[in-house]
Design a protein that fits this description.
By secondary structure, the protein is of the alpha/beta class. 36% of the residues lie in helices and 23% in strands.
Length: 378
């Protein structure tokens, strides 16, 4: 058992290691992020085993920026000022910058008071290096997900709600940094979102388990002919509508929001005969489900390690000719098998391609936050 002096000494040593790594990553990534119009990115993700933290940097837009055009004009002007080391612009930017810091669940028990003290010391180190006040560092504990816990509100312990609008590659998104475990934008899927935008023109797109609709926004930005977003959560479907409207996508004939369990939705579409309008078949489908879900709102229990091939099968059956399914998972245990899929649907000819490497962004280099496959009907 370590005494108080030994614990304090160990905390100081780890705080120094954490600060040095954050400083290095920040120097490497901040210019890359500005050049690529990225306002939210990962700085640290368990880089040092003894420091099991993830640290994400978020920059909100000024409150007066409420549309994409205004954002583009402001970004151009502000980035010029930053590049010229304008002290006023640099200081102002810091007032809109937050650090989202969360501790992964440790493989062993640790005294709660000691853990809180440790996290506070790491936050202090981050505050000093990044020049962000501790009041703008949000601290959370990430546990192994069970059911809908990923999407449930957190106990905020009296802290103020921290929410605002950010931009990513020209698209605008509403974020909430304080009330949920996740913030409303999965940073690791930035490259796949860009792929969807580049390939969506004139196509019908289905976004299953849509969460807050970032894939839907990118598809609409890519001039998709139709985008349907499906999620069982009314909270997140409303958030998706807000993100779409924020980007100017309000045409209810083109942008459809369906509150339904994704499995039930797929079963329904599979049971339908393709209609003349083509509204129950799709050119592109994004399937990025949680690893496990047992929501009270449905009788279906989802275990992606068990159910992935059934979900993919049902998606492939409602694709139009030459359609594409993008399947992504955070599960490291899932065993993907093209042969298993082909046995389920021998009457369809398709090709699978592991595109994981191409979908990992610069700020997640060396990590594998997800795996991703492109499954194309031939």
């Amino acid at each position: 058992m370590q005494n108080t002096a030994q614990t304090a000494e160990k905390n100081e040593y780890q705080a120094e290691l954490f600060a040095n790594r954050l400083s290095k990553k920040y120097r490497l990534l901040k210019k890359w992020a500005r050049k690529n119009r990225i306002s939210c990115y990962r700085l640290y993700d368990r880089d040092i085993p003894e420091i099991p933290l993830a640290a994400d940097l978020y920059q909100f837009l000024p409150e007066e920026i409420t549309d994409k055009t205004g954002c583009a004009l402001w970004l151009r002007e502000n980035n010029l000022k930053i590049a010229e080391n304008d002290p006023e612009a640099i200081t102002e930017e810091k007032t809109r910058t937050y650090l989202h810091l969360y501790l992964y669940e440790r493989p062993y028990e640790k005294d709660e008071a000691e853990e809180e003290q440790w996290v506070e010391r790491m936050a202090q180190a981050a505050s000093k290096v990044l020049q962000i006040p501790e009041s703008r560092i949000i601290k959370k504990l990430r546990k192994k997900q069970k059911g809908d816990s990923q999407y449930e509100k957190l106990e905020t312990h009296g802290n103020n709600k921290i929410e605002g609008t950010t931009q990513e590659c020209g698209q605008l998104f509403k974020l909430n940094l304080s009330e949920y475990l996740d913030t409303g934008l999965f940073l690791d899927h930035r490259p796949l979102r860009s792929t969807i935008r580049q390939s969506a023109q004139g196509k019908s797109v289905l976004n299953l388990f849509c969460y807050t609709g970032s894939f839907s926004v990118y598809a609409a930005e890519g001039r998709a002919s139709r985008v349907e977003s499906v999620d069982l959560s009314n909270t997140y479907l409303t958030w998706t509508k807000q993100n779409m409207a924020l980007n100017g996508f309000t045409d209810s004939s083109k942008y459809i929001f369906t509150r339904q369990d994704a499995t039930g939705f797929l079963n329904q579409k599979n049971a339908e005969v393709p209609n003349k309008e083509g509204t129950n078949r799709f050119d592109l489908i994004i399937l990025d489900p949680p690893t496990f879900s047992n929501s009270k709102a449905t009788q279906n229990v989802l275990d992606i390690n068990r159910d992935w091939s059934t979900l993919c099968e049902k998606c492939l059956k409602i694709l139009k000719p030459k359609g594409i399914l993008y399947f992504s998972t955070n599960s490291r245990r899932l065993t993907f098998s093209e042969e298993e899929l082909k046995q389920k649907i021998p009457d369809l000819t398709f090709k699978t391609e592991d595109i994981t490497a191409a979908t990992i962004p610069e700020d997640f280099a060396g990590k594998k936050p997800h795996r991703c496959w492109k499954i194309s009907l031939q």
